[in-house]
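Notes, Module 5: Reading structure tokens.

Key idea: the token line is not a picture. It is a compressed description, and you learn to read it the same way you learned to read a sequence, by spotting repeated patterns. We will look at two proteins. The first is printed below with its tokens.
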Amino acid sequence: MTEPMDPELVAEKLAELSQRAAREQRRRHARAPKKAANVVAQLFAKKGYGQPRTNEQLRSAWAEAAGPALGKFCQAAAVRRGVLEVIVANSMMAQELGFEKTRLLKAVQQKLPDAKIEGLRFKVGRLA
């Protein structure tokens, strides 16, 4: 004859088995092969091939946001990880643009809401 088990011990064992099953399921899911479509989609997103906007759209939006006075000393280059990189003619203009960074960021975000631009970075370089 078997003796009845302690209900607390049974509950403890069931909880332990449940945790072990969940842990094993996570391990199996992590090792499962990934679908080729998902891998290609991640690669396209990472490299920026799926971005609908072109550099010309970025440049025109930036030129409108910066205005004619500042726009002739800088131009938009690219969006990387949500940060719009702007090429600036010299460090003095980079500093000047830095003072107006918040206003410029809001203006660019309004002009390109799908670009999901979260920040601006000013780099001194040669304008095209």
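Here is the second protein, with the sequence above and the tokens below, as before.
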Amino acid sequence: MNLSSLRRLRVSLGGLAWLAAVWVLLWGSLSWGNVLGGLVFGYLVLAFFPLPRVNFRLRPRPWGVVVLVVRFLYDVVRSSVEVSWLAVRPGRPARGVVMDMELVGDDVLLQTLTAEMVALVPGSVVIDLDSRERVLTIHALGVRTRAEAERVRHRVRGQEARVLRALHPDAAELLHPRRRREAQARLAERDGAGTPATPAATPAEDEEIR
């Protein structure tokens, strides 16, 4: 066995400890046999079925995190009351719609965090997240008109903006429409695709996301 083969068999100690703990919890009792079995099981899983490496590019901002958590808890409480009213109110049953939304950020971790927080708010269910195309598909309850659909889109865009302001290193560049288009042009030029024509901004695109 050469050196490269040995390197492939190296595993993360944190991941190994986590899988061993899960193994012990599944067996329901703490014993040397269960701990040893968990370590062997965890090593085999990590060595022969390695997870893809995730590049973290986060910059936590304390005030942004506070705003993110407080507003999320407020949205959960408010939406719980709204969904409860839809369930008990007289009249026709509430209906929902499926809608696609384009996310601003291209970081897979932050896209996933945004989708999870949207899904945890009652009344909205995440159906799909296409990270490459930055498209989030959700089912929203109690939406009957275009104006109500726009309010749902505004809430989801606001959720993503709070996630980016709390954790993304270049949140201002992503959330400002003009800076976002300039950044996309720089990325395209850096990747060798040439500078694309800057698309004309619509009034909605020129609104800064809050």
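Summary for the second protein:
- The two ends are 56 Å apart (CA to CA).
- The longest helix spans residues 62-88.
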